[in-house]
Amino acid sequence: xxxxxxxxxxxxxxxxxxxxxxxxxxxxAVEVRRLKFDAQLQSLGRGGALAELPYQHDxxxxxxxxxxxxxxxxxxxxxxGMAGPITLNGESVYIPMAxxxxxxxxxxxxxxxxxxxxxxxxxxxxRDGITRAPLVRLPSARxxxxxxxxxxxxxxxxxxxxxxxxxxxFGKLIEARPTVAGRNVYIRLRCFSGDAMGMNMISKGSLAxxxxxxxxxxxxxxxxxxxxxxxDKKAAAMNWIEGRGKSVxxxxxxxxxxxxxxLKTSVPAIVEAxxxxxxxxxxxxxxxxxxxxHAANNVTAVFLATGQDPAQNVESSNCITLMEETPDGDxxxxxxxxxxxxxxxxxxxxxxxxxxxxxxIGVKGGGDNPGDNSKKLAHVVAAATMxxxxxxxxxxxxxxxxxxxxxxxxxxxxx
Length: 415
Fold this sequence. Notes:
The protein is α+β, with helices and mostly antiparallel strands. It has helices at about 5-10, 20-25, 25-40, 60-65, 105-115, 140-150, 155-165, 200-215, 235-240, 255-260, 265-285, 295-305, 315, 350-360, 370-395, 400-410; strands spanning about 80-90, 90-100, 120-130, 135, 170-180, 185-190, 220-225, 245-255, 290, 320-325, 330-340.
């Protein structure tokens, strides 16, 4: 039977997607699955999005040179799975995930199904701005305090804003918040960066801000362009409280019948497990931003698939997962993620495979309005996280986690 006919049977649900590897050679199963997803993406106006997502060994090293890696000797292929669809802000979305952790995509897919069977996911960005915190030093603590007070004057901030924005077409300086420690001043700059994640943009603008300050404070010396109050790629209460990148809150309501049939647990059981594990347990561990089950799993998988900086998973995975039983006995779930750092232009987003995954979501390149695509990608990261949280907590509440992994994440040892 031709691959196209088998794909049609999968689309008609006559053959289950997860059965393909059992019925076909694994390589052919991937070919059929790509046809199936291409048809589904076609219905969303994104047909052909996966064309540049390789499934055979291939990498254009010319695209890597001068952009992504040095001293290149090869590349490490990571499997990409597709979770969804999930209804997100009224739109049907598929979520590409690159991972080597068995069951992660399947579990996230179950969460997507449960959310879509319910209210769908509703996501809001409450703050948007990447940060950089240059460290400058003055001859005395008194002079450092004078710099702080000068920056906090609104008329002086306008001078810094003008200097910053002279270096970029899209960047807009939103805030400059100084902190003094003795003779040191840490100036946390926050900027809107359009559809770029923005670190190069804000770093360039930060140098212009320092030069502007030097015109008033010639004795000021720049110790480090990043003084670690940004805070980039490190766990920090600063990001948890103040936010960095996109600050997102997402929610959904899952009917109690769906909790029983799809998630195989009950609303009271999953709420109790979430409270005692993700809230009390994380508090006992004195975590910073870790009031969740495994947000980093989904954040990293989407980051790898879409060409984001994987090291920024550290702060982008800041998340508190809340669950409540509604007056009708249904499940309400939310994830609040104050520091998702994503972009749809620049960095790894230009590589063919990562570009294909962005196309599948519908966010490749710059948006019609600067920032539209990067914001949508942040919503998708939050949706993947919430779906993953929902499914894993259901497995823990029903005590089926180990059984699922043993059944689906183990294979006989090769001889």
